[in-house]
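Quick one:
INPUT:
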């Protein structure tokens, strides 16, 4: 189950639900470019890099408004330290489901990601100060059932912004389409979750024989199963950004 321990748990090969929201619950993504910049940074840090990639800033190929990349965190990639299983970006917060392969992989990724994005955002919108609400939150996931339902919770998160007839396939800023095979990339690894959906897995009801059915047709409430760890009670594991 998600860890409730006060002492922060850094575990090699551990799975974590990671999230943060805007300071004072303000929006951290104001338009499509902001979402794309955040995802481009994730892709940059978690993809194989060439020598040319290492020589330029990760946002160099994007059309940005007034962004001058100074005082950047180190840009070497973390492909061998962090695996991204799922993500969802919402106007005032984000969710990541990750596996850290090293004891400090998660911390290094979040510090670099959030610092660089905050610099971009503040420069573009001519603001100063912290963008995110204190430290990022991270809950250690210790049971397979929680891992599965957390991926479902993350992919259904945009439902709160939608009217009746919500379809997660239409969510442009989540990893759900990677799970359906509509998209593919080496920096997002859906196979870890999809491997649970075989004929021998007792965690999945027999009638729910695909990830798509688990997300869209399963009658259970994943948020109730996860409890408040789905958002507010996860352990704090890093520094302010």
């Amino acid at each position: 189950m998600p860890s409730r321990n006060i002492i922060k748990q850094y575990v090699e090969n551990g799975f974590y639900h990671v999230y943060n929201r805007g300071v004072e619950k303000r929006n951290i993504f104001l338009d499509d470019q902001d979402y794309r910049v955040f995802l481009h940074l994730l892709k940059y840090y978690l993809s194989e890099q060439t020598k040319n990639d290492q020589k330029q800033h990760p946002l160099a190929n994007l059309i940005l408004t007034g962004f001058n990349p100074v005082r950047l965190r180190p840009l070497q990639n973390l492909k061998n330290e962090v695996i991204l299983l799922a993500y969802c970006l919402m106007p005032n917060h984000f969710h990541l489901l990750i596996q850290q392969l090293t004891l400090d992989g998660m911390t290094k990724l979040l510090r670099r990601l959030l610092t660089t994005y905050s610099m971009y955002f503040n420069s573009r919108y001519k603001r100063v100060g912290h963008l995110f609400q204190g430290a990022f939150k991270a809950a250690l996931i210790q049971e397979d059932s929680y891992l599965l339902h957390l991926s479902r919770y993350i992919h259904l998160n945009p439902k709160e912004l939608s009217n009746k007839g919500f379809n997660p396939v239409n969510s442009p800023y989540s990893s759900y389409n990677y799970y359906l095979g509509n998209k593919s990339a080496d920096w997002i690894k859906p196979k870890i979750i999809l491997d649970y959906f075989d004929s021998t897995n007792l965690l999945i009801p027999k009638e729910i024989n695909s990830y798509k059915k688990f997300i869209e047709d399963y009658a259970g409430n994943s948020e109730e199963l996860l409890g408040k760890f789905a958002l507010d009670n996860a352990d704090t594991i890093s520094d302010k950004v």
